[in-house]
Write a structure and sequence with these properties.
The protein has 7 helices and 9 strands. It is an alpha/beta fold.
Length: about 240
């Protein structure tokens, strides 16, 4: 096994599927099966999911809301997605724990690092909701921070594309995919992998990132087993 403990980052938009808004249950079931395949291989899995399918904090100012208030609304959106994913994972037969960066005791545990690590050691899938619990930080930053805190081997960023390209492959047909790239090369080429805070956190703590297509069945298990999937960003 290549990666023993992983942090999987999913975007909220990925849960929309073919819809324009909200949660597509087909996507929940698909992601639950992908995560189950990783757990079945013996990997310890933590998940951070965004809230963009419901509300994005950065939208707040454009519609006249206070940015800080908007960010907290976005955090609550991530908790809704996390609860939906938790339910899908449990239906797939997995044990889970949802830990939140802001206290919502009726629906989830508060985030405590040692408790999170103990859950992982016991084979439970740990979902981190509410981002970092602070405004002005994205869920990318939450993913990097939590991955470092729980001593994960890698951040796996599940996207709609199969890696990092020289240009946006949806706009430029001549774009080519990198198999491996260094943190420095990403900086120099100005490639968009994660937001700069999240990316810098990974670089400074020597935490590799893999960007891969989460919508292709079997990709997560292949990554766990050490197969070349997506693009690896490392030192």
């Amino acid at each position: 096994m290549r990666f023993k403990r992983i942090l999987l980052k999913l975007s909220g938009e990925s849960l929309m599927g073919e819809q324009q808004y909200g949660i597509d249950t087909k996507m929940l079931v698909q992601y639950a099966q992908e995560i189950k395949s990783a757990v079945d291989l013996g990997a310890q899995v933590a998940v951070v999911i965004g809230g963009g399918n419901i509300f994005r904090g950065v939208q707040a100012e454009s519609v006249g809301l206070d940015r800080v208030q908007g960010d907290y609304m976005g955090m609550l959106a991530t908790v809704i997605n996390s609860m939906a994913l938790q339910s899908a994972l449990e239906k797939a037969g997995l044990y889970t724990r949802l830990l939140s960066g802001i206290n919502i005791q009726q629906v989830c545990e508060p985030y405590i690092r040692r408790r999170a690590m103990r859950h992982l050691e016991k084979g439970r899938v740990v979902i981190f909701g509410a981002g970092t619990g602070n405004p002005y930080f994205t869920t990318d930053s939450a993913a990097s921070l939590r991955a470092i805190e729980i001593e994960a081997d890698v951040v796996l960023k599940g996207t709609r594309v199969d890696g990092i390209y020289t240009a946006d492959p949806e706009k430029d047909a001549s774009a080519t995919r990198y198999t491996d790239i260094t943190f420095e090369e990403v900086f120099e080429k100005g490639l968009n992998v994660m937001d700069m805070t999240a990316f810098t956190l990974c670089k400074e703590n020597n935490l590799p990132i893999v960007v891969f297509d989460i919508n292709k069945p079997g990709n997560l298990a292949k990554l766990i087993n050490g197969e070349k999937v997506g693009t690896l960003v490392s030192m």
